[in-house]
Amino acid sequence: MDTAENWDVYEQFRESMRRLAQDKIAPHAAEVDRTSTPPDTSYDALAEAGMISLPFPESVGGQEGDLMSQVIVVEESSRVCGTTGLAVLTTWAATEPIFRFGAPDLIEEVIPECATGKKKASWCMTEPRGGSDLAGLVTRAEPKGNGWVLNGTKRFISGATWSDWYLILARTGENQHGLFVTHKDEPGLSFGKLETKMGVRGSPTADVILEDCFIPANRVVGDPTLGYHNIMASLGTSRPLVAAQGLGIAQGGLDEAIAYTKEREQFGKPLSRFQMVQGMIADMTLKVESARAMLYRAIEMMDRNPAKARGFASMAKLICTDTAMSVTTDAVQLHGGYGYLQDYPVERMMRDAKVTQIYEGTNQIQRLLIAKHAYGN
Ligand SMILES: Cc1cc2nc3c(=O)[nH]c(=O)nc-3n(C[C@H](O)[C@H](O)[C@H](O)COP(=O)(O)OP(=O)(O)OC[C@H]3O[C@@H](n4cnc5c(N)ncnc54)[C@H](O)[C@@H]3O)c2cc1C
Questions:
Q1: Where among 194, 227, 260 does a domain terminate?
Q2: Residue nearest to atom 40 of ligand 1 (CA)
Q3: Atom of ligand 1 nearest to the CA of 362
């Protein structure tokens, strides 16, 4: 985002992405939520428009689009459907370490069909014993013959059963971890029950269970002792994408609240004419724009000052997702009793917002990371 010219290009891209989201994603959002079914139609529409291929290398069918463009796709998708935003960022987050650290034949096996949207991928870090203490995981990978055997359970996995590929972080030594790619049809891989959730209901969530699951040697992603280090590097990309999901949901809630308060009349005039309502809309707008500024600054830092970028990614994740919760709660409030009904999208948006404060490192964990960077540790 160095020049005004770049800014115009991003804004034009946002306009086209917003039209796509409005026409092809928004009409399915309520149904995806009500029936808890994966957003196939929306995902296919994004793939057809070339949006899913955005981050991938050109050599395997991608566009090598920068993080800012990816953020715009997730933001605008989530503005109308939080589940679709999650579906897109899940595949992108799970495949990023593969094309960053994986061997050419692994990239060739996994990435081209993910770029076309034909196949999807899930990112499997959390375990039953905990998500915040990632280094304490117990899933193991042991070398056997010409490959690896995986044993363990991954919990709360977004896209479980829907995705084709699963990126697993597993222990390979006392203080060593590796990243491994498994396929859903692999013998030894199974799924737990689908969880019933508060929000992002169209995104299937389940345990991924690995019982003597054998995978060939080429499915290890990079050095099998550096998986934890590599996943930390990838969080620098995935956290801004979760921030974008939160920001998109917040923008969606704000837009709905503005539209509703212009239409709804009380005491003989539109709600938008009451100063207390205007004050709420002003505060919501301020929060959304502050969160957006923080997120775009975090993206800028990745190029300009990589040493500080992780702290900024945490700040962006924190402010965007806290804003999602706060703004959608106020959007429900401004709809009065109607905001509490499923007839209006703000009810779904408020439920979808909550999980963004929990996953990809809870917002308490983000505060710890921000303090760590502030102290220069
Ligand atoms: C819908 C959904 C989808 C998800 N998708 C995925 C996925 O695709 N892949 C994946 O790997 N995981 C996924 N997760 C898991 C998610 O990342 C974890 O739930 C999250 O990291 C928190 O881990 P936990 O649930 O074990 O909570 P815990 O780690 O047990 O935390 C419980 C509470 O304690 C707080 N806490 C913990 N440690 C500290 C500390 N040191 N200081 C202060 N507070 C602390 C936390 O902030 C939280 O409030 C998903 C979760 C949900 C709900």
A1: 227
A2: 365
A3: 47
Residue 162 in contact with ligand 1 by CB distance below 6 A: no
Q: Are residues 128 and 97 in the same domain?
A: no
pLDDT band at residue 377, thresholds of 50, 70 and 90?
Answer: confident
For residues 327 and 288, is the Cβ–Cβ distance under 8 A?
yes
Residue 376 pLDDT exceeds 80: yes
Number of domains in the chain: 3
Predicted confidence band of residue 4 (pLDDT cuts 50, 70, 90)? low
Do 192 and 257 have their domain in common?
A: no
End position of a domain, from candidates 90, 115, 140: 115
| 32 CB near ligand 1 (under 6 Å) | no
Q: How far is the CA of 317 from the centre of ligand 1 (A)?
A: 14
Arithmetic mean of pLDDT, 161-185 = 97
Q: Which of 95, 162, 362, 364 to mutate to test the pocket of ligand 1 (most atoms within 8 A of CB)?
A: 362
**Beta carbons of 30 and 348 less than 8 angstroms apart:** yes
Which among 77, 62, 65, 67 is positioned nearest to 20, based on CA atoms?
77
Domain CATH for 232: 1.20.140.10
> pLDDT value at position 2?
53
- One domain for residues 220 and 241: no
Active site residues: 360
Position 3 scores a pLDDT of 57
CA 244 / ligand 1 centre spacing (Å)? 19
Which residues span the domain enclosing 23?
4-115
Q: Rounded to whole angstroms, how far apart are CA atoms 27 and 320?
A: 25
The encoded tokens of residue 364 equal 């308490």
179's enclosing H/E stretch is strand 176-183
Q: What is the rounded CA–CA span in Å between residue 275 and residue 126?
A: 46
Mean pLDDT, to the nearest integer, of 236-258? 97
Same domain, 41 and 151: no
State the average pLDDT over residues 172-179: 95
Residue 177 sits in the same domain as residue 263: no
Q: Are residues 204 and 264 in the same domain?
A: no
Specify the pLDDT at position 245.
Answer: 98
